[in-house]
């Protein structure tokens, strides 16, 4: 039999523990605020912020056809509903498959992509200027061609089983008219035969099939996808570690945080999709969209890390990432 004093003690203890565990969190709180829809055509996916301008992003359409430029400045000034055929959206290329895992070049003036010829289905790697829509092709037509990996001013791809690296700085000078200082070429990073390579060394797990390396802006870290999830390899200390289950990773410009998606399916269709932010070392994992009753896909961080873009059911959304201070 419990005495009244002991019963009161247990009640106090339970209340204390409930308050304590509620106030102390394993992960920092960073909910999304000021969520707003930018496109309304049901055909817009995979937004990627400019590395230099938080009010500018590029995105693609269903089946990754084409790349389009979107200015959120004009949207916030009351331009109205957006679609891929109206201002402030500007088409950069309408090539098939060009929107699959495209990347901004360093400096935010050009976009790198792998396109596909609509008739003969050959592929090619190219760069398009966001200001002049001038197009430069790097690879020529190829039957097999990997998605290019961007590492500062160097892009690397595998064409017909051969690794090819291109210094794009001189090409960017030709487009922009700005002189580019010569630099020491960074390591070539690419996917080949199910492995991720840094120069001629395979750095991904030997027993895993991996693909789509994405290099951090600082050039020291690369994240890539494998069947079991995401891995990060750090070049400076040659350390590889498993990050988390997920796909579609994108680095923040500080090279410290990245965002990615986690999905679940029933064998036929996706039934759950959330967006997470995490430090490159696996700490501070946050589910940013746990409170959204929607399939949230393909995230991207703004260059200042304060905003995030993603797509829901074929429309582009943008939101602010609240700080811990803002939600206390």
Plain-language structure description:
This protein has 328 residues and is mainly β. The chain has a domain at 95-186. The chain is built from four helices and 26 strands. It has helices spanning 4-23, 72-76, 169-176, 324-327; strands at 32-37, 44-49, 56-61, 67-71, 89-93, 103-104, 110-116, 123-129, 135-137, 149-151, 154-159, 162-167, 189-192, 195-198, 201-202, 210-215, 221-226, 229-234, 239-244, 247-251, 257-265, 270-279, 286-287, 296-301, 307-312, 315-321. The strands form seven sheets. It has a four-stranded antiparallel beta sheet with strand order 1-26-25-24, with no helix packed on it. Strand 10 and strand 11 (154-159) form a beta hairpin. The longest helix has 20 residues, at 4-23. It is globular.
Number of helices: 4
Main β-sheet, in a few words? 4 strands, antiparallel
Helix-strand category: mainly beta
Mean pLDDT: 86
- Give the termini distance in whole angstroms: 42 Å
Which percent range describes the beta-strand content? Answer: 35-45%
Strand order of the largest sheet: 1-26-25-24
Q: State the shape.
A: globular
- Low-confidence segments: 1-29, 76-86, 324-328
Q: What are the secondary-structure elements, in order, as H or E?
A: HEEEEHEEEEEEEEHEEEEEEEEEEEEEEH
Helical content stands at 10-25%
Beta-strand segment tally: 26
Give Rg in angstroms: 22 Å
